[in-house]
């Protein structure tokens, strides 16, 4: 014993194997084998062996020797060795060992026989401990990978039989079903000779599983064709033998389940027939009521059909009248409008400032404007970014000197900081808006004479926030054919957002995309102003409209 303990402490596999084999020889030889095993148990040999199995590499010869010693101890006729094996934690270690050794090998047979012997005897506690440790799943897995004619299969079935024996709880039998034991056992029964020991053990195990109050287990066996296999076995063994007795017992239990199922089916059939009769009677009454309702519905539909025909005639006449009115109105509105086939657009986008805050969402504004203006018929000539104050008027003058003979309108968009009557350069120096507007009067830019000139100014016109005081008055008129749209009234700030850009520009682009085919520019600006004021921010955009006609875009 001391040799084994020293070998475990030194983790010497060869010494562990030698000490375990010595324990096997001590337990196996002589007429007093049981007494020798009792002495080994008393000398704490089981604890040492479990420690040795825990330390040994799996699989290995040392582990094989340790499991062989544990098997001999478990084979003792006494109850004490089995109880000590369970208490010392041998069962989980044996299951771990069984999981790594080759299926059908002598090592697998030793492990299964050890578990089987632990479950033998009068100790119900040992069987419960084996079930709690998860041995059922391990034994089923081993059985599924083993031929029916091997000792491994015989030992695994023997252990499952002991777990299923009648003095154990219903929980153990349910555990066998849950862990797939039924399919594994029936596979062995199908492959085994009817009179073999393993077939007898399988039949006895199935008999025990079918006993008890649980119809679910018996029905599970019936669904898996257990009756066919047990009947075949019953016909292949000697009458009155243990094998025939086990097969007959299991078939008797399954017969009870079939009778109960048949009686239940008959009761269910009677219930269904009664329900069907009641359903037919209810349907007959419902059909009669339905026939009466359908007759009334037909009369109602006929009356409604006449009324609908009359309404349809009236609606057709009203529709024709409205279409005629719309055509006349559209013709009249278009005749009073500017001619528009193609427009020119220029965008100044100041957003990176030396001393003022950078403008949020400038990239969103520029992208939305380019997409929208292209959609409604404008060619964007340039998007100039981050002009200084002294560069703004010369930049505008350059476009005022251009020939716009091929264009029907000009839109000039100014995105920047600003104040009353001015727009800011990135160096915070201001350019007067009137100086920009005056560059495009007919005496300076004759190619835009009698053509609409639209200026969109998205810049603050002061420091007042719109929630503080009422809206200020608009810019006084300057010259004909100008339309100037400010993001805010004079004296007020203009709001923007980092993700959606300027509220005014976002609203105007949205309205122009949705309404450019039906509304003129003045109506679209009115809609955009209302959207900003009511839906986005407390901000009231302002327009100065000196156009002489309506401007319809493409």
Strand order of the largest sheet: 2-1-3-7-8-11
Could you say which overall geometry the principal axes of the C-alpha atoms support? Answer: elongated
CATH homologous superfamily label of the largest domain: Leucine-rich Repeat Variant
- Beta percentage is 5-15%
Q: What Rg do the Cα atoms give?
A: 49 Å
Instruction: List low-pLDDT spans.
Output: 1-13, 467-478
Structural class: alpha/beta
- Helical fraction: 55-70%
**In DSSP terms, counting alpha (H) and pi (I) runs of 4 or more, how many helices?**
22
The CATH architecture of the largest domain would be: Alpha Horseshoe
Number of strands: 11
CATH topology of the largest domain: Leucine-rich Repeat Variant
What's the CATH C level of the largest domain? Mainly Alpha
Structure description:
With 554 residues, the protein is an alpha/beta fold. The protein folds into two domains: 258 residues, Alpha Horseshoe (Leucine-rich Repeat Variant), CATH 1.25.10.10; 203 residues, Rossmann fold (3-Layer(aba) Sandwich). It has 22 helices and eleven strands. Helix 21 crosses helix 22. The N and C termini lie far apart (103 Å). The N terminus is likely disordered.
């Amino acid at each position: 014993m001391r040799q084994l303990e020293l070998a475990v402490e030194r983790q010497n596999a060869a010494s562990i194997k030698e000490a375990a084999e010595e324990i096997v020889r001590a337990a196996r030889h002589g007429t007093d084998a049981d007494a020798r095993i009792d002495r080994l148990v008393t000398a704490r040999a089981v604890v040492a062996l479990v420690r040795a199995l825990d330390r040994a590499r799996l699989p290995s010869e040392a582990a094989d020797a340790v499991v062989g010693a544990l098997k001999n101890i478990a084979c003792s006729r006494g109850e004490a060795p089995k109880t000590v094996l369970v208490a010392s934690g041998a069962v989980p270690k044996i299951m771990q060992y069984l999981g790594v050794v080759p299926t059908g090998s002598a090592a697998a047979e030793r492990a299964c026989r050890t578990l089987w012997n632990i479950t033998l005897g009068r100790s119900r506690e040992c069987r419960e401990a084996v079930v709690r440790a998860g041995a059922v799943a391990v034994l089923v897995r081993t059985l599924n990978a083993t031929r029916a004619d091997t000792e491994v299969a015989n030992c695994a079935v023997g252990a499952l039989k002991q777990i299923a024996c009648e003095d154990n709880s219903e929980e153990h039998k349910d555990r066998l079903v849950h862990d797939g034991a039924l399919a594994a056992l029936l596979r062995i029964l199908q492959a085994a000779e009817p009179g073999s020991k393993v077939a007898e053990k399988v039949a006895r195990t199935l008999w025990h599983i079918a006993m008890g109050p649980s119809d679910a287990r018996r029905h599970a066996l019936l669904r898996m064709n257990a009756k066919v296999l047990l009947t075949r076995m019953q016909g292949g063994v000697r009458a009155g033998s243990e094998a025939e007795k086990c097969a007959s017992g299991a078939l008797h239990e399954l017969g009870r389940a079939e009778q109960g199922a048949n009686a239940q089916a008959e009761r269910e059939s009677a219930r269904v027939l009664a329900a069907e009769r009641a359903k037919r009677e209810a349907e007959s009454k419902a059909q009669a009521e339905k026939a009466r309702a359908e007759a009334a519905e037909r009369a109602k539909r006929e009356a409604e059909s006449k009324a609908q025909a009359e309404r349809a005639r009236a609606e057709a006449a009203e529709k024709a009248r409205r279409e005629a009115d719309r055509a006349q109105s559209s013709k009249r509105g278009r005749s009073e409008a500017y001619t528009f086939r193609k427009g020119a657009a220029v965008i100044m986008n100041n957003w990176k400032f030396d001393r003022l805050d950078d403008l949020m969402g400038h990239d969103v504004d520029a992208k939305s404007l380019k997409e929208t203006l292209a959609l409604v018929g404008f060619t964007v000539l340039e998007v100039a970014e981050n002009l200084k104050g002294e560069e703004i008027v010369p930049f505008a003058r350059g476009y005022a000197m251009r020939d716009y003979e091929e264009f029907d309108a000009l839109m000039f968009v100014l995105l920047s900081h600003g104040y009353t009557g001015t727009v800011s350069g990135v160096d915070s120096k201001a350019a007067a808006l009137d100086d920009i507007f005056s560059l495009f009067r007919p005496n300076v830019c004759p190619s835009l004479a009698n053509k609409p000139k639209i200026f969109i100014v998205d810049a603050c016109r002061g420091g007042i926030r719109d929630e503080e005081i009422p809206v200020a008055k608009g810019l006084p008129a300057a010259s004909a054919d100008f339309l100037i749209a400010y993001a805010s009234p004079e004296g007020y700030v203009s709001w923007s957002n980092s993700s959606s850009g300027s509220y005014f520009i976002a609203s105007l682009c949205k309205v122009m995309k949705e309404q450019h085919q039906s509304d003129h520019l003045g109506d679209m600006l009115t809609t955009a102003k209302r959207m900003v004021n009511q839906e986005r921010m407390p901000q009231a955009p302002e327009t100065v409209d000196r156009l002489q006609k309506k401007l319809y875009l493409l």
